[in-house]
Amino acid sequence: MDTIIQYALIILLLPLAAFVIQIFFGKRLPRHGDWLPTGAMFLGLIFSVLILGTVFKEYDPAFKITHSFDWVSLGQYRISFGILVDNLTAVMLFVVTLVSSLVHLYSIGYLHGDVRYSRYFANLALFSFSMLGLVLVDGFFGIYVFWELVGVCSYFLIGHWFEKDSASDASKKAFLVNRIGDIGMFIGIMIIFAALGTMNFAEVFQGIANGKLAGGWLTAAGILVFCGAIGKSAQFPLHVWLPDAMEGPTPVSALIHAATMVAAGVYMVGRTYVLYTADALLVVAVIGTITAFMAATIALTQMDIKKVLAYSTVSQLGYMIAALGVGGYSAGLFHLMTHAFFKACLFLGSGSVIHAMHQALHHVHDHHTDPQDMRNMGGLRRKLPITFATMAIATCAIAGVPFLSGFFSKDAILAASLEKVLTTHHPLHMIIFVVLVLSAGLTAFYMFRMLYLTFSGPPARKEVFEHAHESPGVMVIPLLVLAFLSIVGGYGKWFEHLMPKPALPNGGIAGLEALEHASAATAHTAHLVAMIVSVGIASLGILFSTSVYFWKRISADAIAGRFPKLYQFFWNKWYFDELYAKTMVAGTMLMSKASAWIDRVIIDGVVNGVARITVLGSWAAGWNDNKIVDGAVNGVANVIDWFGRNLREVQTGKVQAYILMALGAVVLLFVFQLLVNV
Amino acid sequence: MTPVGLSHFLILAAILFALGLIAVITKRNAVTVLMGVELIINAANINFIAFARYLDKDLDGQVFGIFTIIIAAAGAAVALAIVLNIYQQMQSVDLDEADSLAR
C-alpha cells in the first residue's frame, strides 16, 4: 500500500480511536480526557501536512492515488469503498485537521468546567472522523455514509446544552431540514447507480463519458445530488437551520457550522463537478447567488454576534456554490479554504468575546443580559486586544480588503462570474454577477458593523466592561494561527494550478463542451475588472459602515426608520421561519392530524369491529362448549353416576341377599316363561 | 290312592329344595346355611334318581347322584374349613357380619 494511503488511513482512524476511548473511558481519564482527541487531531495534522508536502513536491494537477475494495457485491452490482487522495483531498485534509485541532485546543479553554466536558470532546472527535472520511472516500456510497455521520454529529453538538429548549429545538431543526436535502441526494445517487451500476467516482465519470447517462437524467441526477449540498451547506431555501445551529457551543459553530461540515456541500459539488450539465450548473449558480444575497441582507440587521456570523457563513457558502455554478471551480474551492480560515477565526474570536462577556456578567451577578447581544458590548478593543486584532484581520479578509486571503478568493469568484458573462452573454449570468458584487459590498458593510459594535465606541455598561478579560492562552493561540492563515492563505497560484477545472475521461465536462473556454484576453479582462469592482465595492461597504458605526455621521436608526418595511423584512430573516411554520410545519401538522383521524376512526374502527366480532364469536363458541358439549358429556356422566349411586345399594356384600335376588330372578323367569307359553 | 309315581318324588324334591333354600336365605349361622345347601343338593339328587328310574330306565342318574354326594362332601369339607377360618378371624360365624373380604 502506498505511503500516502497509509497516512490517510492514520489520519482517518486517529480521531475514531480517540472517540472510542473517550466515549467509554473519557470521564475516568485525567482532565476528563480532553488531551486525547486534541492530541489525536494534532497528530493527524502532522500527517496531513506530510501529504500536503507530497502534493506540493509533485506539483502535478493529475496527482491521484486511490485504494479501494469491493464492500458489497450483488450479482452484477458492486459497491466499492475506498480512499481517494488527490490535490483537493490533500487540501481538505489539511483544512479539516488544522481547524479541528485548533478548535479542540480552543475548546479546552471555552468549555472549561462544562457538565458534559468529556462527552463534548468525544463528539468532536467523532465529527472529525466523519468529516475526514467524507473528504477521503472515493464514491457516492461512502460520501453518503459520512454525509449522514457528520449530520448526526452536528445534531449531537448543536444539542450539547440540551437542557435549553432552544438548543434541543435547534438540533432537531438542523437534522430534519438536512434530511430534506439528503432525500434528494439519495434519489440522485440512486439514479446514477441505476444507470451505471456503480458508485465509484472514477467509474461513474467514465460511464458519463461513455454516454450511458446523459441528457435529462444526467441533469436530474446532478440537481438531485446538489439537493444534498443545499441542505448541508445551508443554501436557499433550506438555509433556515444554520442560524439556529448557533445554539451549540461557539467552537462547534466555528468547526462544523463555518469551516468544515457546511463546506461539505461545496466540496461534494466540486468532487462530482463533471456530473453537472449546463442546466444543472445554472440551477447551482442561481441557488448560490440567491443565498449569498439573501443571507447578506439578513446579516445587516442582526444584533446577536453569532447570528451575524451565521448569516455571513450562509452568504459565503452561497458565494462558493455560485462560483461552482458559473464554472469557477478553483475559485469556489479556493474560497472554501480561505473562508475556513477567516470564518473559523471570526467564530473563535466571537467565542472569546462571548466568554469574556459571560465571565464579566457572571462577576456582576447579571444572569439576564444576553452575552451574545452586540448592544451590550462596545469598546472591548481595550480589554481584548488580541481577540480584537485577530478578528479585525479576519474581518478585513472576509470583506475583501486587498492582499488578504479573502480578497484573492472573492476576486477569483467575481472574475469567474464575469468571465461567464463575457463568454455567454446570458442575461441571467449578468444578474448573477451584479448580485454577487452587491453581496460583496453588503458583506463588507455588515462585517465592519459587527467589528465596530463589538470593539469600538463607549462600553454599553461600565461595570460589565471593567470585568471583561482576555481569554486564556489555549483560546488565543488558535486565533493567532487562524489570523495568520487568513493573511497568507491566498497567496500563490498553486491552488489554481493544482486544481484546474476537472474534465471527464473523454476530455469534456458534461454538457459544458458546447461552451467555449474563455480566451486568455477575456480572462485577463475579467480578472482586472473583477478586481477593480471588488476593491471598489468593498471599500464602499467599509466606508459606509465606518461612517455609520465609527464616525457616527449617519444614524443607523434613521436609515432603518426611513425603510421600516424593508428593515422589518431583513430583521425577521425574510420571514422564512414564519413561512415554513405556516406552510410546511402547519401542513405537516394538518396531515398528521388527518392521519391520526384516519387511524383513530377508520383503522381503529375496523380493528375494534373485528375484535368485537371475534369476541362475539368466541362468546358463542364458549357458550356452545359450556352448555352443549360439556352438557352432553356431563349429562352422560350424571346418568352413569345416578345409576351407579343407586345400584351400589344392591351390592351389600351379604351372600344371602344375592341368593334371594337370584331366587327372585328365577321366579320372574318362570313367571315370564309361563306367561309366554300360555 | 294313586301309586307312588314320578310326580311324588318331584314334589318331595321340591319341598326339600324349598326347605333348603329357606334355610340358606334366612339362617344367619353359617353352619345352618351349609346344612341348607346339603338339603338343596339332596333335593337335586332325588330328582336325578327319580328321572333315572322313571324316564331313562338306566343307571346314569344314580351314577350322577353318587358323584354329587361325593362332590357335596368335598364341598362341605371346604366350606366348613372356610367357616372355621372365618370363625378364627372374626370370632363369629354370623354371615351378616362376614360381608367383606378384608377385615
How does this model look, in words?
The complex is a heterodimer of chains A (678) and B (103). In chain A, 74% of the residues lie in helices and 3% in strands. Chain A is built from 25 helices and 2 strands. Chain A has helices at 3-25, 35-58, 87-110, 117-136, 140-158, 165-196, 201-209, 215-232, 241-244, 250-259, 264-271, 278-301, 305-325, 329-363, 385-399, 405-424, 427-455, 462-466, 473-488, 494-498, 520-549, 556-562, 564-571, 576-647, 655-677, and strands at residues 64-74, 77-86. Chain A has a two-stranded antiparallel ribbon with strand order 1-2. Chain B has 103 residues and is mainly alpha-helical. Chain B has one domain: Helix Hairpins. Chain B is built from 3 helices and no strands. In chain B, helix 2 runs antiparallel to helix 3 (60-90). Chain B has helices spanning 6-26, 30-56, 60-90. Classes of the chains: A mainly alpha (678), B mainly alpha (103). The A-B interface holds A 652-656, 659-660, 663 and B 21, 24-26, 33, 95-96, 99-100.
- CATH domain class name of chain B: Mainly Alpha
Q: What is the arithmetic mean of pLDDT of chain B? A: 87
Low-confidence stretches of chain A at least 5 residues in length (pLDDT < 50)? Answer: none
Count of domains of chain B: 1
Into which percent range does the helicity of residues of chain A fall?
A: over 70%
Measured by DSSP, the beta-strand proportion of chain B falls in under 5%
Largest sheet of chain B: none
Q: How far apart are the first and last residues' alpha carbons of chain B, in Å?
A: 58 Å
Helix-strand pattern of chain B: HHH
